[in-house]
Amino acid sequence: MNRALVIGVTGAAATLLAACSASATTTTPTPTAATTLAPTSTPVATIAPTATPTAVPAAVDLSGSWTGQYSGAFNGHFTLTWTQSGATLNGTIVLSSPANTVHVTGNVGGTAITFGAVGGVSYTGSVSGNSMSGSYQVPGGGPGGTWSASKS
Amino acid sequence: MGLAILLIGTRKGLMITRSTDDRQTWAVDDFQFLNQEVYSVALDTRQDPPRIFAGVGTGHWGPLLTYSDDLGKSWTEPEEPPIGFPQGSDASVDRVWQIQPATDQQPDVVYAGVEPHALFRSDDRGQSFALVEGLWEHPDRPKWTPGGGGACLHTVLPHPTNPDDVLVAMSAAGVYRTRDGGATWHPANRGIQAAFLPEDQRFPEFGQCVHKVAFHPDKPQRLFAQNHFGVYRSEDRGDSWTPIESGLPSNFGFALVAHPHRPETLYSFPLQADAERFPPEAKLRVYRTEDAGANWEPISKGLPADPYYAAVLRDAMVADRGDPAGVYFGTRLGEVYASRDDGDSWSLIASHLPDILSVRVAEIA
């Protein structure tokens, strides 16, 4: 039933010293994690494009209250309240378990929606009429799941 | 000792370290669950492969209880939350405070203590957990109050030979014990003072702010408890308690660890006071008794002499099963100290970590 999730591994920043040793520098590092080294090649200068990007107009107005649920590694229900300005979304999400109210911001372009909150919280999905759905991901590469909502 | 694994749960992730030279040196393996609190960790060596459990707080979505069967290289991604209150309940799990594998007699049983005060039990080695209804529905429950850290069930102590006998400790509800596998629970706090209550109410049946309970598996009737003001011993598995704090510089603290082979030996990390949560006189010292609390000695060989203004939390001190025993503690300054000689001397084995919340160790065959 459980899938394996490989958590992203970073080089540990801790100082690791020897236990019960007269020397504090006899660490025997045997890291199993792959280390990614910074490239040593000379960076190539890039010139920013001068063309003015064309804004994708929001095809829908999501302003108002949406109720929904999330499932997967976590589950519960939520209420999203959006104020939309162009393609930009601002609002709150009220989660049920544990009870949590969080300010969220996002974007909608065509039918695609992304939103999130401080701390790396991210939701992505698509909008279709009065319903939207997608997936969420725990920061740091942790497990996630799916969510869906409909306009109240 | 072969491969030793030391798990260090911090405010910002889990560090896994390992030693292959009888605990002389430790190498960092991984730093995982970045930016997420790891209040509880456990190493279950009852089956092969060993299983690492982690109680991770994600903030936005609440806690995750997950496990790894490859010593932390990968973690389960559950298709549904492994732990949670039953449908229809108004409660939600706010934090996983304790993950405790049961005894060898029940190799698939794992307990989890959570906030709010509740105990969960898994019978499939941690894939799914069910609420222990007998404790959740206890008539005392409406009168239980949260401690400073929350309404946490932070200690689970299964009896080593009687699976029906389990003891839990909760802040600030006290110690409770079941003798029928969790169906019924009874407070076990007689003799423990609740110093924060009015003077004429200081010995209630329950409501004490117990911080940690420890015992030696060879002597399960003898318990030790560190309370919010008070260190106690019980010789009847919690039916009654007597103070053993004489000789300690303070009766306040969190961590309490039993020696793996000597039932008379216990390690304590006292703090100056409730409102002064650093070592007494700002001297980083572990206190050890070798006569079940009659006498205490400070041990500081190898520990910093400079003033030290950080605490050791309730699950941030632990002992391994080596002989001599290894003892480890992590501080809120992000340092881990280790002894491989029963606590006689100490060395710094990790530093510059985030605030340390939990430490566990085990030998892997």
Question: Based on the structure given, which CATH architecture of one domain in chain A is correct?
Answer: Beta Barrel
Number of strands of chain B: 28
CATH topology of one domain in chain A: Lipocalin
Q: In what range is the share of β-strand residues of chain A?
A: over 45%
Could you name the ranges of chain A where pLDDT drops below 50 across 5 or more consecutive residues? 1-55
Give the class of chain A from helix and strand content and strand pairing.
mainly beta
Question: Largest interface, per-chain counts?
Answer: A-B, 54 and 58 residues
Structural class of chain B: mainly beta
Q: Indicate the proportion of strand residues of chain B.
A: 35-45%
Helical content class of chain B: under 10%
Q: Tally the helices of chain B: what do you get?
A: 1
- SSE succession of chain A: EEEEEEEEEE
CATH superfamily of one domain in chain A: Quinohemoprotein amine dehydrogenase alpha subunit, domain 2
Radius of gyration of chain A: 22 Å
Poorly predicted runs of chain B are none
- Sum up the overall morphology of chain B in one term: globular
**How would a crystallographer describe the biggest sheet of chain B?**
4 strands, antiparallel
> What's the CATH H-level superfamily name of chain B?
YVTN repeat-like/Quinoprotein amine dehydrogenase
The radius of gyration computed from the alpha-carbon positions of chain B, rounded to a whole number of angstroms, is 19 Å
CATH architecture of chain B: 7 Propeller
* Average pLDDT taken over every residue of chain B: 96
Please, could you describe this protein's structure?
The complex is a heterodimer of chains A (152) and B (365). Chain A contains no helices and 10 strands. In chain A, strands 3-4-5-6-7-8-9-10 form an 8-stranded antiparallel β-barrel. Helices cover 0% and strands 48% of the residues of chain A. In chain A, a hairpin with a 3-residue loop joins strand 3 (64-72) and strand 4 (76-85). Chain A has a domain at 64-151: Lipocalin, CATH 2.40.128. Chain B is mostly beta strands and 365 residues long. Chain B is built from 1 helix and 28 strands. Chain B has one helix at 133-136; strands at 3-10, 13-19, 27-32, 37-44, 51-57, 63-68, 75-77, 95-101, 110-115, 118-122, 130-131, 152-158, 166-171, 174-178, 186-187, 210-216, 219-227, 230-234, 242-243, 252-258, 266-271, 286-289, 297-299, 317-319, 327-330, 336-339, 347-351, 356-364. In chain B, strands 3-2-1-28 form a 4-stranded antiparallel sheet, with no helix packed on it. Chain B has a 4-stranded antiparallel sheet with strand order 8-9-10-11. In chain B, strands 12-13-14-15 form a 4-stranded antiparallel sheet, with no helix packed on it. In chain B, a hairpin with a 7-residue loop joins strand 24 (317-319) and strand 25. Chain B is globular. The mean pLDDT of chain B is 96. At the A-B interface, strand 1, strand 2, strand 3 and strand 6 of A face strand 2, strand 3, strand 7 and strand 27 of B. Strand 1 (3-5) of chain A pairs antiparallel with strand 7 of chain B.
